[in-house]
TrEMBL record:
Transmembrane segments: none
Name used for this protein in its record: UDP-N-acetylglucosamine--peptide N-acetylglucosaminyltransferase SPINDLY
Record Pfam families: TPR_1, TPR_16
InterPro entries, per the entry: TMTC_O-mannosyl-trnsfr, TPR-like_helical_dom_sf, TPR_rpt
Origin species: Cryptomonas curvata
TPR repeat positions: 1-31, 32-65, 66-99
Keywords: Coiled coil, TPR repeat
Coiled-coil stretches noted in the UniProt entry, renumbered to this chain: 96-137
Superkingdom of origin organism: Eukaryota
Length: 140
């Protein structure tokens, strides 16, 4: 069932792939790669909540499963959960420091976090300026 799921996923047939992965999991519930691949198919269906749980389960079953950490980090980054994405990507790199995709995605995540911090600083500066003007006019 795992090989069937993989073939279906590669063909973009995500729903049947998930079904095949579930059948594989029924036969071998401790096989982390089944959960990892099912997470990919679920993400392909925009079922990100379930995909996240699937990736987390893969990591729980195999705490050294680099690709599951990477996939979870990539998913979280796509959801805008930057800090959590960075944590997962760094976990992947602690296991395999030369994981090219994780390195690249971590760089992307850090740049996104920098933008988020800069935007927050701009908002704070604008709020301070507005408050100062209101104070100057005696409105506060």
């Amino acid at each position: 069932y795992y090989n069937l799921g993989t073939a279906l996923e590669k063909a973009g047939e995500f729903k049947p792939a998930v079904k095949a992965y579930r059948q594989a999991i029924e036969l071998e519930p401790e096989e982390a790669k089944y959960y990892n691949n099912m997470g990919g198919s679920l993400a392909g269906m925009n079922r990100t909540d379930v995909a996240e749980r699937s990736y987390k389960w893969a990591v729980k079953l195999d705490p050294r499963f680099v690709d599951a950490y990477y996939n979870l980090g990539n998913l979280l980054l796509g959801l805008g959960r930057i800090e959590q994405a960075i944590e997962r990507l760094e976990a992947a790199l602690r296991i395999r420091p030369d994981h090219a995709k994780a390195l690249s995605k971590l760089e992307e995540a850090k740049k996104a976090l920098e933008k988020k911090v800069e935007a927050f600083k701009d908002e704070v500066d604008a709020a301070i300026n507005k408050a100062q003007k209101m104070l100057d006019r005696g409105e506060l």
